[in-house]
Amino acid sequence: MALDGIVVERVRVVALDERVVGPYEKGDSRYAVVVEAAGTTGCYGPVDELPAALVATSLGQAAVGHRVADHDGLAYRLLAELGPHGAGLGRCAVGALDCAVWDLHGRLADRPVAALLSDEYARRVPVYASWLSLDLRSAQAAGSVKSTADRGFAFTKWSLRGGRHEASEVALLAERASRWAGHEVAVDALGTWGYLFAMDIAPLLEPGTVRWVEDPLPRTDRAGYTELRERAVMLPVAFGERLSHVRDAAVLLEYCRPAAFTFDVVWCGGITEARRWMAAAHEVAVPVHLHGRAFLPAVHLAAAFPETAGAVEYQVVWEPRRQRALDGTLRPEGGHVTVPDRPGLGAEVKR
Question: What is the mean pLDDT of residues 296-307?
Fold first, then answer.
């Protein structure tokens, strides 16, 4: 089908039926973005309420009449519509709509999104497991970490909050998690460590136990991470999901050189914008490990850029809950997922 003249005709936000995808729990996303053109429907979900509301109003109207295959032009229009509020939930809303349009494009072209992004994409993508709600101090922690690691993931990631505990205790928990998993683990500090705690704990982490510490500082800015580097604090860090603009990402990547860049495909503004973020990381040879909240589009993006993207995050507790909203789940086997060969993103949102 010739796509040059096909434009977006309608954008809708639909509520997912709890009788089909529920029962809901606190924090579950309950909406999907639906885009229509030339008798074909593309969609992305599940989406949270506030980004969905932005799509249902101003952003959806801005997309109507735009060419489906002109992703860069559409991204520019949507970000212009957001104006000075183009961060946070606004970026997430743009990202959800962008992913729905890519799904529509793939369906019209009868090709997977990964094939639209690259003529030679990887058919299988490595994944790593994260389980951030598991308390590593609990009695069941050792068994849970071991059983998760035994599923063959590239590696695993666990939550270690700072502030309420001594650096020595947190370092000991990291060492235990590594021993239970049988490999070097990633740690997510969830922005709770702070500069001083990071300096205290860095020399206490045993070599070969921690692959990286994600978001140790409460803010992802150049000043804090540059100072850690300039003070020769030997702490491998990862960041990305809290950033909103590619220019900020490029500066941080160049000056701070993290061990991993962990941005989210939808939170950054969608697949179209994520290509720029991938290019910024590739430019300075920083590996990308895409955040798992937008797992399906992350798999397509990682498949299209395997020279830059490493393992994609698979959230072992939350992702199966999100995939209840989809017909056609994407589950890891042996530490990899197979890229869907169906048109678009490769999964239908249950509506």
Answer: 98
